[in-house]
Design goal:
Layout (H helix, E strand, L loop, with lengths): L1 H13 L5 H25 L3 H10 L4 H31 L6 H20 L1 H29 L16 H26 L8 H29 L7 H8 L2 H9 L1 H33 L6 H15 L8 H29 L20 H18 L8 H19 L27
Helix pairs in contact: 1-7, 1-8, 2-7, 2-8, 3-4, 3-13, 4-5, 4-10, 4-11, 4-12, 4-13, 5-11, 5-12, 6-11, 7-8, 7-13, 10-11, 11-12, 13-14, 13-15, 14-15
């Protein structure tokens, strides 16, 4: 349902047919980045945190990669949970910004925590039955929408004040917050793709997924413009409500719509909770000798979700995607610049069999850390108003590699390795299985 919301927000910014521009940018950009990162992962048999050790950040510095990954999942956990809570609050007659709604969010989060705590078996059950339930209830919802409301087609998807350059950049910024993150999700399983698969093959995997997402986004625009007139005369408030799938399906389908939201979004949030806690656990294990069980990181995420729920993240999607885009895009573009420019083109380090083991790579690759820090500072200046925020994620992801490549050239690749490996040492480690932290 996140994609319904994101599509609706883009639609209200630029209207038809201009909304196809940010959607196309997201599809093409994520396909290209995903194809590159997925093939690197499949060739090396390593996850992104382990790749980050050798590609620019070092053994300890790679914890930043895991932390950035976790921040994304924290946002999506709160976002998806808010959709469910808003639907439940609507049916119960509870204001979505009240203490009662926070209690509703907490109860929904505890359900997700229960399934995540039980592990992969419970999650597998949710994933197996979640999609068929989603499709059936979605079709029922569309029939009820058609029978009870006046549907709006693309010809009526117009922006009140007309499409502006600023609005287009705002929509592109929303898309840019997803370009890299969608590629990273695919890479989680892409590292198990056969090494014989080409860039065209990995691009095909990404494109199929992203085209389905694009269809859902367009449906989100359709839902938004169809329902906006039913949420009051204040246009800003009405548009916010019309991009909230929890409210939309609760209004259109009643109790059945709430069941729809609960069954489908709890399924997604179990994955968000599991993945976010795993990323935080990995980051902590890299930086601290004292291990904290993954389950307790899930508890922390639930607490954070309850604390942050009252701000209604749906109204700050642009800011959250700008922040996550700054962090995620800068990290991955540094990684790609290391692999394709510093290694493949400039031969500053081996272009294959990327070293990742502690003692074989530096704890902190200063080139990567300085480049990432610079990119984050440049992006943060945009978020805090030094220049338009919708440029922030673009500026950060460009600055990162522009700082990283010259630094790596100036240091002649000295920041890669902490020790020289003997020429006759056997490095034929099995990279198809990720070692324990």
């Amino acid at each position: 349902m996140f994609w319904f919301a994101l599509g609706g927000q883009m639609g209200f910014l630029v209207g038809w047919p201009w909304l196809l521009v940010p959607i196309a940018y997201m599809v093409i950009g994520a396909t290209v980045v995903g194809a590159l990162v997925m093939r690197i992962a499949s060739q090396e048999g390593l996850s992104l945190p382990l790749l980050s050790r050798g590609l620019g950040f070092g053994a300890r510095g790679s914890a930043i990669a895991s932390f950035v990954y976790a921040v994304n999942y924290v946002f999506y956990f709160i976002f998806e949970g808010s959709i469910v809570s808003h639907g439940l609050a609507e049916i119960a007659g509870i204001p979505i910004d009240s203490a009662g709604a926070s209690v509703v969010f907490a109860l929904v989060a505890l359900v997700a925590l229960y399934y995540s705590w039980r592990g992969m078996h419970s999650m597998n059950i949710l994933q197996r039955f979640g999609m068929p339930i989603f499709l059936v209830l979605f079709v029922i919802g569309m029939v009820m929408l058609a029978n009870g409301y006046v549907l709006t087609g693309p010809g009526e998807w117009a922006v009140q004040d007309g499409m502006t350059t600023t609005a287009m950049w705002q929509a592109l910024s929303l898309a840019n917050g997803q370009v890299v993150f969608q590629a990273l999700i695919a890479t989680d399983y892409g590292r198990f793709v056969k090494r014989t698969v080409t860039y065209a093959g990995t691009a095909g995997v990404m494109l199929v997924e992203l085209l389905m997402i694009a269809v859902v986004m367009v449906i989100g625009v359709f839902l938004g413009f169809t329902m906006v007139s039913h949420f009051g005369e204040n246009r800003a408030e009405a548009e916010l409500a019309a991009t909230d799938p929890g409210l939309i399906f609760a209004v259109v389908m009643g109790v059945l719509g709430v069941i729809f939201a609960v069954l489908t979004q709890v399924r997604i949030n179990v994955m968000n909770l599991y993945s976010g806690s795993l990323a935080l656990s990995n980051a902590w294990d890299v930086l601290s000798p004292k291990r904290v069980g993954r389950q307790w990181w899930m508890v922390l995420l639930v607490v954070l979700g309850v604390v942050l729920y009252p701000i209604n993240v749906l109204q700050y999607t642009d800011k959250f995607l700008a922040v996550t885009g700054i962090m995620t895009n800068t990290w991955i573009f540094i990684l790609l610049s290391d692999y394709f420019v510093c290694r493949k083109l400039l031969k500053l380090a081996p272009g294959s069999q990327i070293e990742y083991r502690e003692g074989r790579v530096k704890d902190w690759n200063l080139c990567g850390m300085v480049a990432l820090g610079t990119g984050l500072i440049v992006g943060a200046l945009g978020v805090f108003g030094a220049y338009p925020m919708y440029f922030a994620s673009f500026a950060a992801m460009v600055v990162g590699p522009l700082v990283y490549i010259p630094l790596t050239v100036l240091t002649r690749g000295a920041q890669y390795g902490a020790a020289t490996v003997a020429a006759d040492e056997d490095l034929s480690d099995d990279r198809s299985i990720e070692p324990a932290p």
